[in-house]
Amino acid sequence: MTPGLMQPVPLQTSAILRYAATAHPRREIVSRQIDAPLWRYDYAALERRAARVANLLATLGVSPGERVSSLGWNTHRHLELFYGVSGAGVVLHTANPRLFDEQVAYTINHAESAVLFFEKNLAALVERIAPRLTTVKTFIVLSDEVPHEAGALDVLSYERLIAAESDGFDWPSFDENAGAFLCYTSGTTGDPKGVLYSHRAIVLHAMGAGLNSAFGFTAFDVVMPCPSLYHATAWGLPFVAPLCGAKLVLPGDKMDGASLHELIEGEGVTFTGGVPTIWTMYLAYLEQTGQATRTLKRVMIGGSAVPRAMAETFKRKYGVDVLQIWGMTETCPLGVIASPTPALAERGEEAMQEVIWTRQGRLQFGVELRTVDDDGADTPRDGETPGALKVRGPWTVQRYYRQPADAVDAEGWFDTGDIATLDADGFMRITDRAKDVIKSGGEWISSIDLENVAVGCPGVKIAAVIGVPHPKWEERPLLVIEPHQGEVVSAAAVLDYLAPRIAKWWMPEEVVFAEVPLTATGKIDKKALRQVVTQASGKTPG
Ligand code: ADP
User: Rounded to whole angstroms, how far apart are CA atoms 108 and 129?
Assistant: First the structure.
């Protein structure tokens, strides 16, 4: 091979920041704050404040390669951590405040973070978990004040700290494969698993997502990320928007219909995105108030299947195109996106919309897909034969953080746990989920964990959990109980038993009593169980 002779400049997040600050310095960033008016500044000012963060880390003695954690909403200060921390070569672990306390503490300890940044309305959570944090030495509230709720904790103020730092920083150049962001994903059971995004993956993902066949932003776009910054870095939007010079609107922690509409109309948002639950609430708000959106052109929806009616309402009633995406924390998260093609357009508008509205998306550059049968052989790309969905590419996980073995097979394929079909046009459709989890409003509920608790209820022989569709939360858990012979167990008794033992939002939607079918190896046969439940309750399990 002849070595190429172009510059081996590493792909780093600081390059995105420097580009936006230089090429689009006055392009605005607007952010909701917690209990304060909207914050406004621009990319040039973002770089200056990110520089202060980078200098602060040095002052605190945090070295490149080390980790710090954040418990933050979609706010400008959290965005400053995105660039200030990663730009300095430190890894930002974006902890998920919606996990159980033990899991939040677990992830911060597992990351071995030295510093914890948190929003002021998460002070009570921080105070609760603080005694369990084994490595955090410094607590910094993302505010200009120290909240009283922090009680015994010695909490420093972000604004006061960064005010003491210089707003100039020489962004260092380092290996593009260095870790930048650490995101934990809750799996089927057990502890959350860390996915450590490299700088290279983040930059390539942002460039891929910026393509016209994907999000395709221009400098005229106004982009509002509703996926949380702690959920796979808000699907990369905080990188794609500055890369394209788009205005960025951050909705804070307010995702209700009225708050989103106020920002969309007030700031001229052209592109937004998030999980279906948020758009169910938004469409209900528009319907109830008889309003429409003047500026919104496209909304990207993913994390769970987009109901066809949702896509149709957006398009037909409000003239807004829905882009369905499928992805995972393990894929940064963009995997596929339902974008039109000339071949589809030739079939006519109706036929094209039908495909766009009912498929998770289409192949994108940077993510290879295959579906395989039980023997590992490729299933035909006929749009009909389902198989286990596997992915591979430069922004797909190789190995979970601090795990001894790779998460991929010998050829680099990562098994997504989803079951899907692929067709000759490159469209992918999720048909089922092999992993035993339920996704409620964008957050995971482990059916296995829930079953393990429920089976402890007196009189219960087998407890089995499946997901059922829900109009607001997309999916909710349904609990099937088979009591011991001769025992009488009531639904109320089971729910009373669960209440003190699980998080409120894990509470099953319904309890059904039935004989639970088992596989030949004695495991709960979820496929057969879904049929049993359909017969018992007339519901269609998800
Ligand atoms: P994210 O934070 O992006 O939701 P997760 O890793 O928590 O990522 O979840 C990924 C899983 O969510 C996928 O494996 C799939 O089961 C589900 N998912 C994501 N997007 C879609 C979609 N458009 N349709 C159906 N399921 C989806």
Answer: 10
For 206-215, the pLDDT digits (tens) are 999 999 999 9
CA distance 108 to 501: 23
Q: Which CATH superfamily is domain 255-434 in?
A: ANL, N-terminal domain (3.40.50.12780)
**Ligand 1 site, residue 331, Cβ cutoff 6 A:** no
Q: Is 418 in the pocket of ligand 1 (CB under 6 A)?
A: yes
Task: Measure the CA–CA gap between 398 and 395, rounded to whole angstroms.
Answer: 9
Our CA angle for 53, 87, 106, nearest 5°, is 75
pLDDT in tens, 141-199: 999 887 565 667 899 999 999 999 999 999 999 999 999 999 999 867 778 999 999 99
**CB-ligand 1 contact for 302 (6 Å cutoff):** yes
User: Does residue 304 have its Cβ closer than 6 Å to ligand 1?
Assistant: yes
CATH superfamily, with its number, for domain 13-198: ANL, N-terminal domain (3.40.50.12780)
- In the reported structure, the alpha carbon of residue 439 is separated from the centroid of ligand 1 by a whole-number distance in angstroms of 8
Contact 54, 30 (CB under 8 A): no
Regarding the beta carbon of 110 and ligand 1, being less than 6 Å apart is answered no
What spacing in Å lies between the alpha carbon of 236 and ligand 1's midpoint? 15
Determine if ligand 1 sits within 6 Å of the CB of residue 482: no
CA 125 from chain center: how many Å?
21
Residue 428 near residue 326, CB atoms below 8 Å: yes
pLDDT tens-digit series, residues 351-387: 999 999 999 999 999 999 999 999 999 999 999 999 9
**Ligand 1 in reach of 277 Cβ (< 6 A):** no
Residue 465 CA to ligand 1 center (angstroms) comes to 19
Tens of pLDDT, residue by residue over 309-346, are 999 999 999 999 999 999 999 999 999 999 999 999 99
pTM of the complete model beyond 0.70: yes
Hey, which of 183, 299, 418, 443 would you mutate to test ligand 1's pocket, going by the most ligand atoms within 8 Å of its Cβ? 418
Highest mean pLDDT among 190-194, 243-247, 465-469, 512-516: 243-247
Which of 428, 430, 432 for mutating ligand 1's site (highest number of atoms within 8 Å of CB)? 430
Residue whose Cα lies nearest atom 27 of ligand 1: it is 304
In tens, the pLDDT along 470-486 reads 999 999 999 999 999 99
120 alpha carbon to ligand 1 midpoint, in Å?
A: 29
* 438-537 shares the fold of 13-198: no
Compute the radius of gyration of the chain from its Cα atoms. 24
Does the domain at residues 438-537 carry the CATH identifier 3.30.9.10? no
Residues in CB range of 111: below 8 A, 6 or more apart: 67, 69, 91, 93, 182, 194, 401
Return the domain boundaries, the chain. 13-198, 255-434, 438-537
Residues acting as catalytic residues? 185, 330, 439, 444
